[in-house]
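Troubleshooting log. The previous structure file for this entry was overwritten by mistake, so regenerating from the original sequence record. Sequence copied from the archived sheet and checked twice against the printout by T.R.
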Amino acid sequence: MKNQYNKIRKCVGSAVAMLLSSILLSSTLLTVTSCTEQKSNLVEFVEDNTLSTPNDTVYSLLGIMSKMQVIADRTVLLGEIRADLTSLTAESNLKLQELANFTAGTSNPYNVMSDYYAIIQNCNYFLANADLDLVKRGVRVFEKEYAAIKGYRAWTYMQLALIYGAVPFYTEPLLTEKDADPARFPKYDINQMANFFIADLAPYIDTDFPSYGVMGPFDSRKFYIPIRLLLGDFCLWSGRYREAAQYYHDYLIKKNDTHPTGLTSAQWRDEHFESCTRIPASIYNSTDEVITAIPMEVEEFDGTISYLDDVFESTDDNNYYFQAGASRAYSELSRSQRYALVYTSDPVSMKRDTISPSDTIVFPNENYRGDLRLISNYTTATLISSSNNYSTLYQEFAKCTYDFVTIYRLQTVYLRYAEALNRAGYPEAAFFVLKYGLCNDYMDRYMSATERAAAGELINFSGYVFLPTNTQGIHSRGSGEANADTTYVIPELPTKADSILYVEDKICDEMALETVGEGLRFYDLMRIALRRGDPTFLARKVAGRDGSDNFNNDLFRILTDKSKWYLPY
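Regenerated output below.
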């Protein structure tokens, strides 16, 4: 796969690509070139070149995808390095250390706001100029691309709000330097963006994705962001929890495109706890689990490549000196989980027992204790190096891949669905997502009639599609058969509000165990802290990344100020 876009490029002439890219990539909010000289030529070019052919749609999408590539690695690093699950090594570069220490300034290469506005400018140009009335063979030529590009714009604005707080907001293409004066625009935070984009995206909720065939490991439709998930996310951030749960639910059960959890898990093979199976890297990066990915080039000659492997893994380029790995906080959380194994203790009576590894078991290393997703994600080994230039400690990270960067994965959708259900007032149903998985067989046996009736359509799953043979609780991905663990329950608490807080803490832990390294963690902590009106929730987690006995009081004090959560610009 030398170039992700070869198949598309063969469909259209290079002259069109050069012509269209020259206008689409010419200006952004913060980087617009020469004022009056450019104005007349630019306006004349735009007026004479509306988007009115299928070739236009292809190359518009290519221009936007190329800009998405620029922010792909950054999306992961900003959400991961600043959170609690990842610690930097002594070999990490100074700019990553600035992110981790919350001292990054405007000169930090991971803090380039204009890269996001370049995407938005491309999207605005297309949305303003595409001829939506153009019909060929009874089909609106631009409709699928129009919806996909609306999704790109909404997602990019969401990233800006999460990274910078409140940012200049505009929806028209900027054609002159005067147009691009940031003072002209209101500043929107995540709540204001949610109000805009929930209305903006809703009409396209059932519009199909464009497809240009298989590109790299995926069908090209994997490169677009499902509108329902964007709507769910905006509702989740803005406190519209029942709506968020409905959007996530409807995505999972969509007709002819259903999404059961699957049964993939890391497991001990028998009751002796001597050998286990990991979750293969191919599962995290499979078509079953990846919902949306940003395609990357494999060679620098072809465009933008990903360097995440040089951060999280030992490579020849970094002489095996990886820059980031599992934090002590993540390891402590993982080890604190109770693994539940159900086995037949008596072959005559076929009696079934549930056990967990005892505290006296000696594992290859302590990371095997508790939840097994830690050892599925991070694999380390000590090597005998033939060169003094190479590190003897070698690390692989299962979620690193060279040809795409994942931004939506199936298990993440289930966790956000659980988060929304819980805050909508259904903690039992939310906990069900973690312990059992929502299928009728489990709900018939284990869910109270009161909760089931109250949640209603929000937990309605087809008994013909969502089955025990394809559905499990997310906690079972690494902690054994969570459905049989009698200690993994919601305890009796004084009020329903207490139960909601308890379940939210469990969901937060499960997000850590399941999505570590995917760039989501800092924003998950931010969302919960903002919802609770408690900045110390985030501050305490991040300041404790180096372990319970090494709390960073200085970092805690910094992060109790919410303004420090955002990058300066």
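The first helix runs from residue 6 to 9. Archived copy saved in two places this time.
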